[in-house]
From TrEMBL:
Domain of life from the UniProt record: Bacteria
Keywords, alphabetical: Membrane, Transmembrane, Transmembrane helix
Keyword Transmembrane helix: yes
Record protein name field: Heme exporter protein D
Length: 74
């Protein structure tokens, strides 16, 4: 087994820190279309789920109202 005999010095990090081949800015420039597509798809899914939740709530309230009306009118 090899044992590490020294502790390496910590590297200074900055706002332009490189990770592999890219900086964050390079990544965004190279992949802006895909990032935009993912954001748009996520927004569409969220809007659709909110719409469906409102419709389910309205149907539930309507069913509850009808059930209350039918139980009070013999």
């Amino acid at each position: 087994m090899f044992l590490q005999t020294q502790i390496p010095n910590p590297e200074e990090t900055g706002t332009n820190q490189q990770f592999g081949w890219y900086t964050f800015g390079d990544f965004m420039v190279a992949n802006w279309f895909y990032v935009t597509a993912v954001v748009v798809i996520a927004l569409v899914v969220l809007m659709y789920s909110k719409k469906m939740k409102k419709e389910r709530q309205a149907k539930r309230e309507e069913a509850q109202r009808k059930a209350n009306e039918s139980s009070t009118n013999p």
